[in-house]
Amino acid sequence: MSELTELTLTQILQSLRRGDFSSRELTQAYLGRIQRLDPSLHAFLTLAHEQALAQADTADERLKAWRASPDTDLPLLTGLPIAVKDVLSVTGLPCTCGSRILENFIPPFNATAVERLLAAGVVILGKMNTDEFAMGSSTENSAYGVTHNPWNLAHVPGGSSGGSAAAVAAGLAPVALGTDTGGSVRQPASFCGVTGIKPTYGRVSRYGLVAYGSSLDTVGALGRTAEDVATIFKLMSGYDPRDATSMDLPVPSIVLDRIPSLTQLRIGVPQEYFIQGIQPEVEVAVRTAIQALEALGASVQPISLPHTEYALPVYYLIAPAEASANLARYDGIRFGPRLSGEAMWDIFFNTRGEKFGAEVKRRIMLGTYALSAGYYDAYYGQAQKVRTLIKRDFELAFEQVDVIAAPVAPTTAFRIGEHADDPLAMYLEDVFTLPANLAGVPGLAFPVGFDLHGLPIGMQLMGPHFREELLFRAAHAYQQFTDWHTRRPLL
Amino acid sequence: MTLTLEEVEHIAELARLKLTPEEKERYREQLSAILDYAARLQALDTAGIPPTASVLPSRSVMRPDEARPGLSLPDLLANAPDTEAEQFRVPPVLE
């Protein structure tokens, strides 16, 4: 039944409604493929075998009842298997965040994004590997071992949503949820050759997302096509009273034309994203993809985002500062493991020192320093001001153009271990994804080619706040006329 | 800039992290390099530029002051490393 795992979300929903196969058959096909391939990929941290089959059986009952009387309501995603990054709460499944400090934590509630998809009828296959607390660009910072890139097992899948991206690329799930604080959906999507959305800040509720950098965190999704990702994005989006940053705005319908035309679309190409040191194949593939969008009717013009080079230092002060506050809650008292100590203070020091990994401790230290007395103005305060300049760059650009096209990362997937012990070199991988988080704008990554070694190359489109539909329309149009998104790794 | 060992120990104390001597030395080097990189921000003139605390328009978020169901006590205590009589059990805070 391996062909079942080749279908897109759209094809799956049509087939389940027709009764070509059951949700149980589809779920079993995925579970079988996961059991066969995941030992060499390590995309999953938890496989929800029995829970998934029970959800599939419930879906099959509903589908049967609906086929008997098609006038009744059927939730849109009834019977669709999905995978969830292990920083989002799913009732009854472990939520480790890739950390030893949550190794036995089982949340008693669902994240809102998860809850909305469950209400739409999905089957949850399991929880996906991530860099510890989503801090990283390769999944090498997971306390439970690295995920391997399905296109070349010696390479990283990107991160932090590397488990989600690898699973979609390898056909272990048709779609997966991820999160993006500095590029953690877009960069692994690019490295694994799949499509991934980082929504506008405030578009999707973060209730039930374990917090990392609260002014930057977003919940997104990865899939095989822009159409598939748009379907998941729409259902997750919208106001949630349990997240004070979620905006009470209508979620626009995303009309994806069968024969798309981009004649009204103005695309800006920022010169600052084509810098010295970018891998030549990445630049060629992205520029070729921009020409393809132009051939579909879009107009293309050069633009400037002059403060791009400052995004990296700004991010690596603001995100660690917020993380140092958010991660203060892990103290070994109310959840997680507790190391012994004579007094309360000893428990805090011992548990945190032992159970946090190297990168998490590094960012907590960096953030604590940036917020500490005497250094606050020079580091955190200055970073927040430069963030305003970066945000203004985007506001000015979007007076001239509708969307911005750029590479997702300066290189294709690097080798496992290539940046070990050089955190700054690892941080430089995020140079093109951080600005969208700092400005709060949406970004959509999708495959536009391969390098000489057969590793995928991704492009991102960024748009104004709450204009995700522009990104989906352009990527969908591109995918109607190209086949990069249909390529699959040999496994 | 180069952080001193004492500064690293002070940050670790503030962050409630017990570090080994090797970790202290590694973080001293790595944090110094990252802060050096971040120093380029100082060169930008930000006089008159307001800091961005949130990318969203600032607004007050209110909700009705009504009691709502929350998590049950067994659910809340299920993940705790040590409990007693429906409470979190901890060592003495004050001797």
Question: Any chance you could write out the topology, listing elements then pairs?
Answer:
The complex is a heterodimer of chains A (about 500) and B (about 100).
Chain A: H1 9-18, H2 23-41, E1 44-47, H3 49-68, E2 81-85, H4 112-119, E3 123-128, H5 162-169, E4 175-179, H6 186-192, E5 195-198, E6 219-223, H7 226-236, E7 266-270, H8 280-295, E8 299-303, H9 311-326, H10 344-355, H11 358-371, H12 377-400, E9 403-407, H13 423-427, H14 434-439, E10 443-450, E11 456-462, H15 468-481
Parallel strand pairs in A: 2-3, 2-4, 7-8, 7-9
Antiparallel strand pairs in A: 1-3, 4-6, 5-6, 5-10, 9-11, 10-11
Chain B: H1 5-14, H2 21-38, H3 73-77, E1 83-84, E2 87-88
Antiparallel strand pairs in B: 1-2
What does this structure look like?
The complex is a heterodimer of chains A (491) and B (95). Chain A is an alpha/beta fold and 491 residues long. Chain A has a single domain, classed as Alpha-Beta Complex (Amidase signature (AS) enzymes), CATH 3.90.1300. Chain A has helices spanning 9-18, 23-41, 49-68, 112-119, 162-169, 186-192, 226-236, 280-295, 311-326, 344-355, 358-371, 377-400, 423-427, 434-439, 468-481; strands at residues 44-47, 81-85, 123-128, 175-179, 195-198, 219-223, 266-270, 299-303, 403-407, 443-450, 456-462. Chain A has an eleven-stranded mixed sheet with strand order 1-3-2-4-6-5-10-11-9-7-8, with helices on both faces. Chain B is mainly alpha-helical and 95 residues long. Chain B has a domain at 5-43: Histone, subunit A (Orthogonal Bundle), CATH 1.10.20.60. In chain B, 35% of the residues lie in helices and 4% in strands. Chain B is built from three helices and two strands; from the N terminus they run αααββ. Chain B has helices spanning 5-14, 21-38, 73-77, and strands at residues 83-84, 87-88. Chain B has a two-stranded antiparallel ribbon. Chain B is flat and about 55 Å long. At the A-B interface, helix 9, helix 10, helix 11, helix 12 and helix 13 of A face helix 1 and helix 2 of B.
